[in-house]
Amino acid sequence: MAESAAPLPPGAVIGILGGGQLGRMAALAAARLGYQTHIYCPEAEAPARQVTTLGSQGAYDDEPALLAFAQAVDVVTFEFENVPASAARRLAEQVTVRPRPEILHLCRNRLREKGFCNANGVPTAPYAKIPDRAALDTALAEIGAPCVLKTSELGYDGKGQVTLQGVEAAEAAWQAVRAANAEVPAILEGFVEFRCEISVIVARGPDGSCRTYEPVENRHKNHILHQTVVPAEIPQGVARRAEEIARLLAEKLELVGLLAIEMFVTKDEQVLVNELAPRPHNSGHWSLDAAATSQFEQFIRAVAGLPLGDTARLCPAVMTNLLGDEADDWATLLAEPDTKLHLYGKTESRPGRKMGHVTRLQLRA
After folding, report:
1. What Rg do the C-alpha atoms of the chain give, in angstroms?
2. How far apart are CA 348 and CA 223, in angstroms?
3. What is the dihedral angle through the alpha carbons of 198, 203, 204, 209, rounded to the nearest 10 degrees?
4. For residue 130, how far is the Cα from the chain centroid?
């Protein structure tokens, strides 16, 4: 469907595929700009459904439900990339989808996104496609250990991946990753001796305008993002290079929307891309309280065709994810000075599940 260059007027309806916390925070940002949001997801109860009156429950392959959804909205976006690209393509026949379905297709697959980066001169860690057990042995000999075997699709927060310290672990790793997702080839990624992991979020509007947020440092526990620290303690030249990569990839993708790029900074100050996410990202949550324009408002601005907002940081900050029963300390967290608490409205607490986050603002010297 041909896209309109005109911005969406207040009162328009933005359709969001997915009902998680990213959709929830995007819907809240849309409401502040005068938009309605319509959440489409398979779950009857979801965090995003709690903050808007418009919602549809349906599978992502339910064509009649998707058609009804398309007819009820003015533009469609998605809040996570595990939505099938086929659903986005089907919707794009009826209504504008931003980012376009081809970007969703690329970013759902680690092999495709790394290949795309390399084809555009952007370096990544060494990797190999692993369609079968024999390919794993060959790649291990070439890449060496330690390394990580991952499913090339789905899997996040450490799911669907196994670290190999040597060839003796190959069979067990292969069986574990195939059990997680046997429908697509796996990917073997070489370990990188990195100084830190950073991420950059870039927004691009329908007119080609780009705005980047400064690089932030990501710290993990058990393969799950624990804290994001802004600003990242990296040299200015490295920060500039990271932002240049973000803008380059957004332009090459012809992005309309938001793109988060996770990167490794090596000890010799190279910048290697790890993963792409074409939607708001956990590492951008700090911007809700410590940036002139939050990533969620910027996301809505880009999708709606509005002018992009100022990405300036207002103060240093540390964002900490609240996993499982950590969110039960909400009263203590609310009593802390210069602290902003965000809870996602999830009713079931499980170990490792993201229940909310807290951002500590560094307002005092």
Report:
1. 20
2. 21
3. -100
4. 24
pLDDT of residue 3: 64
> CB 176: neighbour CB atoms within 10 A?
15
Q: Give one word for 208, left, alpha or beta, with left for phi > 0 and alpha for psi -120 to 50.
A: left
pLDDT tens-place string over residues 221-246: 988 999 999 999 999 999 999 999 99
> For residue 10, which of 25, 30, 29 has the smallest C-alpha distance?
30
The Cα angle at residue 92 between residues 88 and 94, in degrees rounded to 5: 130
**DSSP of 110-177, one letter per residue?**
HHHHHHHHHHTT--B--EEEESSHHHHHHHHHHH-SSEEEEESBS--TTTTEEEESSGGGHHHHHHHH
Residues forming beta bridges with residue 260, ordered by sequence position: 201, 277
> Can you read off the two tokens belonging to residue 20?
């998680």
What sections of 40-132 are H helices per DSSP? Answer: 63-71, 85-92, 101-107, 110-119
The pair of three-digit structure tokens given for residue 62, joined into one six-digit string: 């339910």
* Whether the bond into 146 is cis, omega within 30 of 0: yes
Q: State the SS3 of 342-358.
A: EECCCCCCCCCCEEEEE
What pLDDT score was predicted for residue 69? 98
- Rounded CA-CA distance 205/76 in Å is 15
Locate 166 and state its tokens: 């040597």
DSSP 325: G
- In the 8-state DSSP scheme, what is residue 223? T
Q: Answer yes or no: is pLDDT of 164 > 90.
A: no
Q: What DSSP state is assigned to residue 363?
A: -
Give the mean model confidence (pLDDT) for residues 176-185.
83
Q: Cα angle vertex 322, ends 318, 323, to 5°?
A: 140
Q: How many residues does the chain have?
A: 365
Residues in CB range of 181: below 8 A, 6 or more apart: 151, 153, 154, 155, 160
- What is the average pLDDT score of the chain? 94
Residues 6+ apart with CB under 8 A from 106: 112, 113, 116, 253, 276
Cβ-based neighbours of 73, under 8 Å, separated by 6 or more: 13, 14, 15, 38, 95
